Request: fold
Amino acid sequence: MPIKDTRFIQESGKVMMLGNEALVRGCLEAGVSYISQYPGTPTSDIGEYFHQILREIPDIREYLVHHWAVNEAVATSACAGAAWTGVRSLNPMKHVGLNVASDALSVIALNGPNPGGMVIVVGSDPGSLGSHQEQNERFYAWMFHLPTIEPHTPQECKDWIKLAFDLSEKFDLVINFRTSTRSAHSRGYVELEPLMMGKRKGEFIRNIPKYNSLPPHAINNHIRLYERIEKLRDCIPELGLNKIYKGTNKIGVITSGMPFGYAMEALDQLELNDVPILKLGMVYPLNYTEITEFLNDLEKVVIIEELEPFLEVKIAEIIQKAKMNVEIIGKNYFPSHDEFSTGLVTTALAKIFRKEPNTKIINAIEYFNSYKDLIPSRFPTFCAGCPERATLYSILKATNHLENTIISGDIGCYVMSFFPPQQCSDLVICMSGGISAAIGMAAKTDQKIIALIGDSTFFHTGMAPLAEAVGYNSNLLLIIFENSWTAMTGHQDDVLRYLTNKGFSIEKICSAIGVPWLKVEDSYNPKKLTKSIENALETEGLKVIIVKRECALQANRWRMSQVRKLEMEGQKVQDTSYFIGGCQMCYECARVLSCPAIRRVETDGIEEMQIDQDRCVKCGVCYEVCPNGAIRKSIVAMEGVEVPFREG
Amino acid sequence: MEIEETDIINIVIAGTAGQGVITLKRLIEYAAQKAGIERVFGSEI
Amino acid sequence: MHGLAQREGAISSHTRYQKRVVDDERKNLHSSIICYGDADLFICFEPSEALRRGIFASKKTTFVLNSRTIPGIMITANLEEYPPIEKIKEILNGYSDHVYFMNATELSLEHFNSNHYMNLIMLGLAIPTGRIPFIEIQNYEEVIKEWLRNADENIKALHLGIDEGKKIINTRKS
Reply:
């Protein structure tokens, strides 16, 4: 959208930034020189901004390297490797990415990132706004001793990520910079400071005890980790991360991150302007003196935090150790699930402070509830022309609408297949959890099993379970969507694209690994794909079908650019369009294929389906599947150049 | 209705994917900056 | 923003601002999301989306809506009903009298041969309601020139929306 965006590179000024943009700006002010990440909401755009910067300023490439890693564990170890050469590395990931990275991180935290600095950015997702689950990853901070900073505004995102690098280098600790879907995608002013170029080269210096956490060094590193964390704990009050808003009320509030904003506005709405508030910028570790001094004059303290009680437990620990008589109010008034809001916090605080409930909020909720059942559902679905939707259509046809068939789903766009009307995914666990679960199922049930996986997920962690399925010749069909992109998170270059350019392919991997039954199909040929799935399900043992077809969003972008180019050159281009005539209203296109470019309209009391020409990408799948031949194809300028979708 | 300069202005923009919801939000925010508005804080989800 | 929220799904955003901050931080803007019932203005690109975000509305809310509906796949599949537009109007009128519909998609198609300018036309409708205070039209124009492609068309769309919007709002007032 922006024509010239200088916000990342201008030396000074006040600019409007999202949390994630500000975080990237902070990294550029901190001299970061290596970033590695696997894309995942809400941290994907961090990498996109770095890519934008690297594209626009080629000179910076010598000092700044960004990798789209194959998975989070690779990214985390890669960042540690870079830090161990003495540079500053950044490792963004979504909250569940931390689960994947945790194995590596447990050791890296123990060893410490020095001589360089390493900051992980964990994008939490209370409310599951862009993820398949919600979890409170702060508990990893406790487990691995990762000092954890939680920003609230974009300004804090920028300022504090810089501080995070300083702390990482000074204390030899991996810093956890914990954002959320909300803080990462909220926008506000950011005052810029000068940029600093990262180190061009580092050098690894051998230090066997530090980098080999094995006996006897493992225990020494564990002792050293406690020393490092305690040193940092002592300095917390001087860091400027935590802030107290004074008040005379005997009930105080401790909070952090986005809930701080809800708490401030909620207290104002309830006219509770005398409540002391401790806003924590660092939620782990806590400085005991700082906390006990805040609690000293209080009878009760309200802990406002999303998800499982972390601060509540840590503050309770401090109260207990200090033998203080302060009552803790937390999860007995606030939910342990979902995202908070000002409305929710106001309602809970009204009860805690025995205030009249806020009528504005109550009326808003009541009136909304009176009509909310009328709101038509609008869940995310596959784009018009999506090859994955077309594959699901073939699965439904080949299995007589999943009769005696289990679909073991996975993470990617196809995670949406559980939504109606296709409802074509029985379960989802985690990246490559689908094929793994299918192996166990195949061992214990005679039902037909189809596991789904995308190419990016296949490279992430899918090859290992495929090898196991080959080893046990598990009786399942694995369908691999090869759409050439990490589509769900916004089409980041993935390793697959580099590999395919070198003639490498998933097909070759499957053959090399010893898959006994392997077919490559095209989802835009649904009849042939359906037949192939039927054949596979009639065959015992492991079967793999690779469905090759580029993500329709990208394929259509490419095709339209080709068309524009040819037209600029003055060439005539064939124009194919699909339209509906004589519709029998059988709903095959609307309920089984369910393409969003098709809509039901009523003209003069007669219902029929219509194709939205501005949304249709001309994949032709509806034309192939209409049982009544009511979907017609028309080609204008037959004599012109044909521009098909690109192959592979 | 009197609007004070210290009042907080609250605008919801709603639509469906691809309609330009976020573009309009950013446009209003950038325009607010041009207009010398002292604090802007909005969410894009 | 990508991920589950994007593909064909419902999108909403909250814009919040404060012309002058006060010394007492407790009285200032701190949350990037609006409290239930606190919205001054709803700008809706699709009628049913106003209902989806209705929890943020109250009697003080002004609604401007694009009247073009986008039925989701469940409506197309005839597995769900799209509420009648009269019903949507009735619900919104239950909040306030300030509910203004305009077919901005059609205006965009008619004037620009594309639906891409609907959002700027809708901003145009919102401006004469007076619910986006302290921002001048030239502020928008400057930003459009700096940040948007096809700036001229977008500025035209904004003014088209303002002109059409004034007609709709003045008709109501008289």
Remarks:
- Confidence is low (pLDDT under 50) at residues 1-5 of chain C.
- Chain C touches chain A through 55 residues (CB under 8 Å).
- The two ends of chain C are 43 Å apart (CA to CA).
